[in-house]
Amino acid sequence: MQLLNASGCLDALAAPEVARGLDAFVTKTVTPEPRAGNEPPRIAETDHGMLNAIGLANPGRERFLAESLPALQELGIPLWVSVGGFAAREYAETCARLEGVTIELNLSCPNVDEAPESAAEIVAACRAATGLALYAKLSPHAWDIGETVRAVEAAGADGISLVNTLRGVALDARLRPKLARGSGGYSGPALKPVALAAVLAARRATSLPVVGMGGVWSGRDVLEFVACGATHVALGTVLFADPDAPARIREELQEAMHDAGFARLDDAFCAAVEGVAKLAN
Amino acid sequence: MPKLRRERRSVVAVEHVGAYVLLRVDRGSLEPGIPGQFFMLEAPGRVLPRPMSLCLAPRGELAFLLEPIGPGTRALAALERGDRIHVLGPLGNGFRLDIARPLLVGGGIGIAPLPYLSEALDRPPAVLGFRSEYHAVAAALVPNAEVVVDPVLVTDALPEGRDVLACGPEPMLEAVRVLHPDAQLAWEAPMACGYGACYGCVVEIDGELKRLCLEGPVLCSS
Q1: Cα dist. B127→A111, B105, B118, B147, B168 in Å?
Q2: How far is B63 from chain A (nearest CA, A)?
Q3: What pTM was estimated for this model as a whole?
Q4: Please, what are the domains in chain B?
């Protein structure tokens, strides 16, 4: 099991010591053209989570490749590059320019107008463009996550990441949206049950590696994701609240495993796979 | 980039100062930093911590002035002596202190960083504005302050020929900038993390959206 960050929830160049606490660092999504992102306010806390509408702010593919990527490589941490775009061709062009990294295709940002192509078409275009490992990051909004997982696997994905945020709205005292964009991506503790269900659905549909994320706050949460079939787990909103979360969560995981009666994480995972088989109906 | 320091510290006192609350925590091995820098304070029961600039740095303590107006600041104001909260910081860029004729300008809860700044600059003159006499009680925290209360504005009372260091609501900062284009201004923005991870606190600097937590919160207005 590798512990990662969720894309867009950490800047390894601003806080390298936090990134070094992870097994690999996942970049903020890179799009072909530079994007300033959405107007502020871009974030709002809610009672059990937070909304963000950053809008894929990033320096664009060329500046990323020329400046950010070499600086990130100097940190000596395994890298995952989150790739975004507005057409399958755009995703594929970025994939073709990358070397020595794992790629996570962001097929599910709730804060921009999404690519009209289906997730499977985008994965197929990227598969044709690169031999690097390709993870498809999916939205929790899909009615049948298993169907999407099978489609992206057939298109050549090497792994699945889920979930991205859920679309949400928060209103201020005068009943106006707190975010300038209106709606945003909902994350944090409230997302966890939704994410666990999505991981379970993915595990029922595939034997590919699955990165589980959504509201992970503790070692116990990591264990729950593994028990639903995640092979890796990513930290998102918790990093905003606690930059020491990677080390803390690793420590807590040992205790959580012991409390749940598992000597090894693999045992919890195997129990999950057996349990999922029983859930076939 | 200095290493992030986060510690669980004990509340020493929670003191009411007019409409505001001065939250004092024991310092542990946290540094007070440069005036204008800020800390992220864990707000019990809330998902995200809250950014607060340091108000005072008494021996062995860090003190933060806050206005209990939302769920986070109310949770912080409800803390009691002996409660423990996580404190991350100091963060961001503070005020430049190498100036000849400083004048501190503050509006409302924006006076928060001025007591510590005043100490560092050997108690220079200050002009503080508040929306009521009750809020103006907090002016006692800043030495040598001239106080104005709404409808009088701080910009009605600014002397000429001073190096202005200001913190307050955005309209006040914009008005100060018009009168003193070289002023150092401490801005505020919603912030989830305080250390460059969330991209929530962007403001436009030199035509680009930049993260206030890394580039600020103190910006030179010219």
Answers
A1: 43, 5, 12, 6, 12
A2: 21
A3: 0.95
A4: 6-91 (2.40.30.10)
